[in-house]
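Step 1: inspect the first sequence and its tokens.
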Amino acid sequence: MGSRKNEVENKSNQEILSELKNPPSPINLHLYQPPRLLNIDIGNRTGTIFDITGQTVSSKGFNYQITTESYAPLINNQILADKNISWNLYGVTADWLEINQPELIENLKKQMEAGAKPPVGDTYLHIIFPFLSQDHKDMLLKISKTVYKERWGVEPETVWLPESAVDSQTLDSLAKNDFKGVHLREHQTYGSRGNIQAVSTNFGKILAISGHNYLSGLVGFDKPWADTFFDRWHQEANNLGFAPRISIDGETLGHWWKAQNGVYEFTSYLLKYLKEGNEGKNLNFNTGEIFDARLVENTSWSCMDTGLGRWKGDPNCYCGLPENGWQANQIRSSKRDLFEKLSESSYRIDNILDESQSDWREIYKEWFLSQRFSLAKGLPISADFLKDKALEKLFISAYIRDLGWTSCGWFFGDVNGFERQIPANSLRAIAEIMSWPDILPNS
């Protein structure tokens, strides 16, 4: 570890930036939909763990809707190919597109062949990384890098973490797995200035590519005119002494902010202003000196109260909760119950596997990769290649656990919400498979 750290630490911050083949863009779009259907096959029985597809007699489901409204226009109109935009497309979502809308993935590849930048890296599954063990983090990053390289033909340079949730161990894993930069929001680092900073880890420095909280939020919540927004962006750059970057959910464009309400006109004009300026005003994103910064531990872009309490049921977190105190406490209690029991099941599964088969993570990683397109198609996940039935149960339980950690399962403030079945039903399935009744959720 020491020699690798020294090799990177001896480089200047500017040298680390210069190693990026694709420097950060002014705007990053986070494109992601959760795994919406999980079926498993174990003991000659097939069952559905969760189904949040939204498919009905009259609807093909949420993924099709969001693709039609957002992903297809962003891709087909070459918005994602614009030099002022970077984007990440989570592996589990890209797999779904590759099965159900393959022409969109092919279009992205053609745009890359014509000179467009490859996407920012991802973690394949959308899990709050600070909740995972170091070994678990490393395994998921290896999975995500394998899928990324297979699909796009290059190695990822930077990464967008789920909900941008981060701690020092997460940065260690990123640096250890050769990521050169991580996209965060401005409140997640301190002790420095600029829209790119350098943070030290136990495996060398990593670049923190910072997005501006207020400006990023304006796009989704205020739906502004492009000239008004660009003027506000320019004012903020003058106040800060540098041009801040912005980062938003890609689905904001087209899905949450509809085409008929002017979102694509806004996008077109904003990209024009970034290229040409507007009324004599320009934004310069050339990076000057890159200063060292420190990480603010256990933060995200989605929990502004306690950093990660949105998923843990922290008593001082009010994110997405109703004003009624009794209802809010009921939701916190439900979240805390799910978080603690999934944490306990994770510990048990990993501990048993560590004791019974030391190399299980490498076997699991290859098996997980083999199941990718079954997940995308909604086909049952099976580990019957394992002749040891106890090991088969553990692998299936580990897989359910990994999908059960999907962040949107806790995101919204509704005990009986649509997405809540992801962690709740995952716990019910693991409890049945492993005969662990104490991890059954309370609701």
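Step 2: inspect the second sequence and its tokens, then contrast the two.
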Amino acid sequence: MDFPEIATYSEVAKALRLSKSTLYSMVSRKELKRGIYIGQGRFNMTRLKDCVVNEGSILRGRKR
């Protein structure tokens, strides 16, 4: 069984080249795809990397 790599806000912000406040607002508006933000300030880096490599984006599609 493989366990996902877990990261904090500061690690994810550094990897995505975003400020922590931008990342906070993305999480609060639920803009990240499902499974990236685990909760309690933790992120699933394995899922984040998959979304960037395979899908090209970490954001959900916006409803119109």
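Step 3: confirm your contrast with the notes below.
The longest strand covers residues 37-39. The radius of gyration is 11 Å.
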